[in-house]
Automatic annotation (TrEMBL):
This is Uncharacterized protein. The lineage of its organism: Bacteria, Bacillati, Actinomycetota, Actinomycetes, Kitasatosporales. Residues 155-174 are annotated as: Disordered. It comes from Kitasatospora xanthocidica.
Length: 212
């Protein structure tokens, strides 16, 4: 088999699955999208990517013909990120999100929509399914199976005053229908329904009170 035949076969495999070829991924640089390893990144043709998006080696975004997936500008998908929209599912990711450091799965199926706002962070083994809404600055951190959760919008996790940050789920376990407000956190240990809602300041007692 010649090199040309080998690459043709590899490209055909991706075409048959609705994925961009390595060559097409390289060309995304012309639109301001950085694909750091076009041979290991898997990206569906139907995905809408904005400028300044970064895809690390191993990042995967799947979206079938009945579904929609859009990634906002400045978002980073780390190598552990897997985003999957199938059967009419819809996934939208805002600006400057950070997804997949330490692993993360975001999955929407028929009749489901997952909305991730600006500067959200999904990391360390988190999984989002069903109808989820994470507002600006919200975070899901740790091996948490989160379904139909709603985390309030606030300031990003880098903001010095935790009272104004977006809602947070952290710990490990199952979260079903959990609602978390601005400046709040649920630190789960198995069943999130049994965990208290706390102020994030509890974990950052020396942080400043900015009141903005």
């Amino acid at each position: 088999m010649t090199d040309h035949e080998l690459w043709h076969r590899l490209d055909r495999i991706r075409h048959e699955r609705g994925l961009l070829t390595p060559g097409e991924l390289v060309l995304l640089a012309d639109r301001g999208v950085a694909v750091l390893d076009p041979f290991s990144v898997l990206l569906a043709r139907r995905v809408t990517l904005s400028a300044e998006t970064v895809l690390y080696p191993g990042a995967t975004v799947e979206c079938d013909a009945d579904s929609d997936c859009a990634i906002g500008p400045g978002t980073v998908l780390y190598g552990g990120a897997r985003i999957v929209a199938t059967g009419g599912g819809r996934i939208t990711v805002g600006r400057r999100a950070r997804i997949g450091e330490g692993g993360a799965v975001v999955r929407a199926g028929a009749g489901e929509a997952i909305e991730l706002g600006d500067e959200v962070r999904i990391a360390n083994g988190a999984e989002l399914t069903g109808r989820c809404r994470l507002g600006t600055g919200a975070q899901v951190l740790g091996p948490i199976s989160a379904r139909a959760v709603e985390l309030a919008a606030g300031r990003p996790y880098t903001h010095p005053d935790p009272d104004g940050r977006g809602g947070v789920l952290k710990g490990h376990g199952r979260a079903r229908g959990t609602r978390v407000g601005v400046g709040e956190v649920v630190n789960g240990n198995g069943d999130f329904a049994a965990a208290p809602v706390e102020r994030q300041r509890t974990y950052h007692p020396d942080a400043p009170h900015l009141g903005d």
